[in-house]
Amino acid sequence: MAEGAWLLRAPAVEDCDELGRVHMAVWRDAYAGIMPADYLAGLSEERSAARWREQLSGADDSGSRTLLVVDPEGRLAGFGSAGPSRDEDAPTPWELYVVNLLPDARGTGVADRLLDELLGDRDATLWVVDANARARAFYTRRGFVDEGGRSAHPATGTLEVRMIRRAGG
Fold first, then answer.
1. Could you give the number of structural domains in the chain?
2. DSSP assigned state of 28
3. d(CA 130, CA 150)
4. Whose CA is closest to 81, among 2, 8, 164?
5. What b/e sequence results for 23-55 when a residue is b if at least 16 CB atoms lie within 10 Å of its CB, and e otherwise?
6. Confidence of residue 57 (pLDDT cuts 50, 70, 90)
7. Which of 38, 49, 44 is nearest to 12 (CA)?
8. Contact 13, 50 (CB under 8 A)
9. Nearest to 98 by CA among 70, 131, 133, 139
10. CATH number of the domain where residue 20 is located
């Protein structure tokens, strides 16, 4: 599929059910063998959709931004979000919260477009699961380096690593 055929657009409340389904499908795929299987099996599309509905319906004045990835057939294939850093010790004011893509969207170039749209030329940090080699390789290719910060995923204790990118660096 041609890169140009993939669409990035803002989400609407009407997208929330499908967004919840895609969000959980991405997690089950990306974290299989990394996070506990019972945790992944217990992820709820309905709870995810409700959280998205709440987020999109609320008055989010933080300056954060979410973009959906739509495939050439018009199906939701992923999403990304970025905004002000949530870390008390933030080394940059901006954070990439998430880039989540279904397998069919990987390798199309749409992840690069998504990251560019969400970050622009800003300095930014992100948290990535340490054992997620595919994601870490992508972020490294895009100029992120291990910053040294470490955290445990709250629900599973899975190790997360903070990465940083300096604009122009």
1. 1
2. H
3. 9
4. 8
5. bbbbbeebbeebbeeeebeebebeebbeebbeb
6. confident
7. 49
8. no
9. 139
10. 3.40.630.30
Instruction: Yes or no: say if 26 and 98 are a contact pair by the CB < 8 Å rule.
Output: no
pLDDT over 60 at 169, yes or no: no
Assess contact for 128 and 96: CB atoms under 8 A.
no
Question: What's the domain range around 118?
Answer: 3-165
Distance CA(72)–CA(27), nearest Å, equals 22
pLDDT for the residue 4: 52
Instruction: Give the per-residue pLDDT at 3.
Output: 47
Structure tokens given for 29 = 């795929």
| Tens digits of residue pLDDT in 81-117 | 999 999 999 999 999 999 999 999 999 999 999 999 9
Yes or no: say if 72 and 1 are a contact pair by the CB < 8 Å rule.
Answer: yes
What is the spatial distance between Cα 74 and Cα 67, in angstroms, rounded to a whole number? Answer: 15
Beta strands in the chain (DSSP E): 7-9, 65-70, 76-84, 94-101, 124-129, 145-152, 159-165
